[in-house]
């Protein structure tokens, strides 16, 4: 009998092995048919689950025959459960209905663009952010979007990083998180080093290029980054990510979420630590952060508290590498004092409320508070004691008026306010209108202290040598509306009124009185039109006007004569035309997969009036000045395309061709005598020249394949043409063009005891290119010498480097 049973089992075993089937399908929106990427598809009671890909498809391989319970869920949609009897390969599609659950998106959507606003934008999904996130600062996760150029002071994307979009730096890019302004009220900068690993708590990002739609905070003069943090996660989760890479880079992150408790309450949190020695000598970074949110979500109302914080300590690599060191020591750092560091902590608190007032009328609002404080420490050689309010040291007949010393420059500030949005839409969808705005106030102290001096004289410990306070109040109100004239033709209008009051009182670090007060009032109209040519094809056009007030340094660095005469830097204006074409479509099956493709083509013209730029002019103490230039412009064509073959292959590519010019530009070159006093100023006039840091060609390309289930390999390629360090277009003062390739590998497993286990490897600068992505320059001449001496400084980026991460989801 045993022999018979064994023989029977052996005969049936091949049949059992062959009885393995595939269960697949697509998840989409029941109303629009749009794919729902990232939807959760779970085989209940088996511990097996997958997430849908970019095209909404899911797939289970090698399932034994039998009965299964299949559950599909997606944020904002009613979950659906199906019983499936598997006797052969089966395809089961799901079309989900939106669920009546208030998620608070009223506040965010008020400042976002959509397909009907006639503006140029790119949406970056949570899945795309996650696959790009290896612990670098947020700009590096956006590097593949059109017209973007990024750079890192330390060279490897950890620490102080920069981003330019269409040639405009971060001080001209409006940044909001959940509709709350992030840009510093005075400098207009957004310092992502103060928000390390925020990407791990982001739901999505919208990048608007150009003026875009009305937003809160600093004026958008190149682009806007609209960031939305974690939404409603219906299922409980926990995740841990640990990574190690070149330059002793470490990344540790732990995230968790409660899921919906009693179908109403959610709690999400994260702790992160990122550290790196940096590519540049001593350019280390030690970054810590947290994120926490707790919310109540009803059918008609939502109340959500969000807080996140970052604490950073970075060794200064701000000075860059002198040009003559590039060939012999690309990692050179001229700073050697062991605590030449930047130390800053920034805490953000947001309270969001949304309520459906009527079936087609909803209200969203938020209160926010940001606390920032910190300093950077410097060792300064042979300083005049009088500059620091310290008396000379008198030793007999000798008077010591200079000393080596260590100083700290402090910022201690508060930023708080409220935003709101009232949204109305008609039942037939023809009209969608929003009334929104914000009131924000900044109160910040700037001061410096001497904490050590070789010759201290009568100074006190922590000798304070300057102090000034700045208060800035910013109010804006806007109204915007989309209206469908016909089924295919829609129009868009947007009008914003913004007023600013800015007051500074006290002395700056040169002990110059910078007390002043200024007011600005701006009216920013925008209009657009969209037309659906055919299924999946849309053309659009928009015209927008934006204004931007000068930054703090434009006021504090003025010459003494200008301050005494009441001469102030003028506000900048931007007139922005956007004309574009969008194509979205699918094709018959290719290689067994239905192809999805997109094409975007956009022409832009950005005409600036009174743009503030450096011209070589200096103030009374030798600091560079920015002055208004009457006429400058940026014009270009942006092309982007994507082809997706399900989970098998995805190819995407974008390229920008642009022309960036200043008209009637005057460059100033100072001539010094033997005692370094200004003897003359040489002026050179240009009828038209290139705007600095504005490459004519920028492109990004990605080829991603999935040769094995769960294994993805992506090849990324970035090109940036040459850029100039100043506005003269001189080959003696420029950044060479560069091409950089990255390789990204991800392998995902779903064992029975874990929701997901992922191992990922990023090889940056695969071909070991030596290049510089940023820099600065200044020039001078000496009396009796016709030679122009240029002093160029560069920020070399890391050669080939690696980052390996292991992520576990429960």
Automatic annotation (TrEMBL):
GO terms for molecular function: siderophore uptake transmembrane transporter activity. GO terms for cellular component: cell outer membrane. It comes from the Bacteria. Residues 315-766 form the TonB-dependent receptor-like beta-barrel domain. Residues 1-19 form the signal peptide. Pfam families: CarbopepD_reg_2 (PF13715), Plug (PF07715), TonB_dep_Rec_b-barrel (PF00593). It is a multi-pass membrane protein. Keywords: Cell outer membrane, Ion transport, Iron, Iron transport, Membrane, Receptor, Signal, TonB box, Transmembrane, Transmembrane beta strand, Transport. It is found in: Cell outer membrane. Residues 116-223 form the TonB-dependent receptor plug domain. Belongs to the TonB-dependent receptor family. This is TonB-dependent receptor. The lineage of its organism: Bacteria, Pseudomonadati, Bacteroidota, Cytophagia, Cytophagales.
């Amino acid at each position: 009998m045993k022999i018979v049973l064994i023989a029977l089992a052996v005969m049936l075993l091949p049949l059992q092995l062959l009885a393995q089937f595939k269960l697949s399908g697509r998840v989409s929106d029941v109303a629009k048919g749009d794919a729902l990427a990232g939807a959760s598809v779970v085989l209940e009671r088996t511990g097996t689950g997958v997430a849908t890909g970019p095209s909404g498809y899911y797939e289970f391989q090698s399932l034994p025959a039998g009965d299964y319970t299949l559950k599909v869920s997606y944020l904002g949609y009613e979950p659906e459960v199906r019983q499936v009897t598997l006797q052969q390969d089966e395809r089961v599609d799901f079309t989900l209905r939106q669920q009546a659950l208030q998620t608070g998106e009223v506040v965010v959507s008020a400042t976002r663009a959509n397909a009907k606003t006639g503006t140029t934008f790119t949406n970056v999904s949570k899945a795309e952010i996650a696959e790009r996130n290896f612990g670098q600062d947020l700009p590096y996760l956006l590097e593949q979007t059109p017209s973007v150029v990024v750079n890192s002071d330390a060279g490897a994307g950890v620490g102080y990083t920069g981003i330019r979009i269409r040639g405009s730096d971060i001080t001209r890019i409006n940044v909001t998180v959940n509709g709350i302004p992030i840009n510093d009220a005075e400098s207009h900068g957004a310092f992502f080093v103060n928000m390390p690993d925020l990407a791990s708590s982001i739901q999505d990002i919208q990048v608007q290029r150009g003026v875009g739609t009305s937003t809160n905070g600093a004026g958008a003069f190149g682009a806007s980054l609209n960031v939305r943090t974690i939404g409603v996660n219906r299922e409980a989760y926990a995740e841990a990510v640990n990574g190690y890479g070149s330059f002793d880079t470490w990344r540790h992150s732990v995230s968790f979420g409660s899921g919906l408790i009693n179908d109403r309450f959610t709690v999400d949190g994260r702790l992160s630590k990122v550290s790196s020695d940096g590519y540049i000598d001593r350019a280390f970074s030690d970054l810590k952060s947290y994120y926490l949110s707790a919310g109540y979500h009803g059918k008609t109302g939502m109340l959500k508290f969000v807080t996140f914080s970052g604490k950073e300590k970075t060794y200064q690599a701000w000075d860059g590498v002198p040009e003559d060191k590039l060939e012999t020591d690309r990692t050179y750092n001229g700073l050697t004092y062991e605590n030449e560091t930047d130390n800053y902590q920034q805490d953000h608190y947001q309270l969001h409320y949304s309520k459906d007032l009527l079936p087609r009328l909803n209200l969203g609002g938020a209160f926010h508070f940001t606390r920032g404080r910190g300093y950077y420490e410097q060792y300064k050689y042979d300083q005049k004691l009088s500059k620091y309010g310290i008396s000379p040291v008198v030793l007999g007949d000798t008077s010591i008026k200079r000393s080596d010393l260590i100083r700290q420059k402090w910022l201690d500030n508060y930023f708080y306010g409220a935003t709101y949005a009232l949204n109305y839409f008609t039942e037939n969808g023809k009209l969608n209108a929003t009334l929104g705005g914000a009131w924000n106030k900044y109160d910040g102290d700037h001061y410096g202290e001497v904490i050590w001096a070789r010759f201290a004289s009568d100074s006190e410990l922590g000798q304070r040598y300057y102090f000034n306070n700045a208060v800035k109040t910013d109010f804006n109100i806007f109204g915007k509306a989309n209206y469908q004239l016909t089924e295919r033709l829609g129009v868009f209008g947007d009008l914003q009124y913004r007023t600013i009051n800015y007051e500074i009182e006290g002395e700056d670090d040169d002990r110059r009185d910078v007390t002043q007060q200024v007011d600005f009032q701006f009216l920013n109209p925008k209009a657009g039109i969209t037309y659906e040519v055919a299924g999946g094809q849309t053309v659009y056009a928009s015209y927008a006007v934006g204004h931007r007030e000068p930054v703090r340094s434009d006021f504090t660095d003025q010459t003494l004569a200008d301050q005494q005469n009441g001469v102030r830097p003028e506000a900048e204006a931007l007139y922005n035309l956007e004309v574009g074409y969008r194509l979205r479509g699918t094709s018959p099956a290719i290689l067994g997969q239905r192809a999805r493709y997109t094409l975007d083509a956009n022409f832009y013209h950005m005409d600036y009036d009174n743009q503030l730029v450096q011209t070589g002019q200096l103030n009374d103490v030798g600091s560079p000045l920015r002055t208004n230039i009457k006429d400058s412009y940026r014009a270009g064509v942006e092309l982007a395309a994507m082809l997706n073959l399900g989970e098998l292959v995805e190819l995407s590519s974008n390229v920008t061709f642009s022309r960036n010019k200043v008209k009637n530009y005057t460059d100033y070159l100072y001539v010094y005598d033997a005692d370094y006093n200004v003897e003359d100023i040489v002026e050179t006039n240009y009828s038209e020249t290139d705007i600095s840091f504005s490459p004519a060609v920028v492109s990004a390309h990605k080829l991603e394949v999935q040769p094995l289930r769960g294994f993805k390999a992506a090849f990324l390629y970035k090109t940036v043409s040459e850029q100039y360090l100043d506005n003269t277009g001189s080959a003696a003062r420029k950044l060479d063009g560069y091409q950089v390739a990255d390789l990204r590998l991800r392998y995902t497993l779903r064992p029975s005891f874990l929701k997901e286990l992922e191992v990922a490897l990023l090889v940056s600068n695969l071909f070991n290119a030596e290049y510089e992505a940023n820099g600065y320059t200044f020039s001078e001449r000496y009396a009796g010498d016709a030679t122009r001496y240029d002093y160029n400084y560069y920020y070399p980026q890391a050669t080939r480097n690696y980052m390996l991460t292991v992520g576990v989801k429960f």
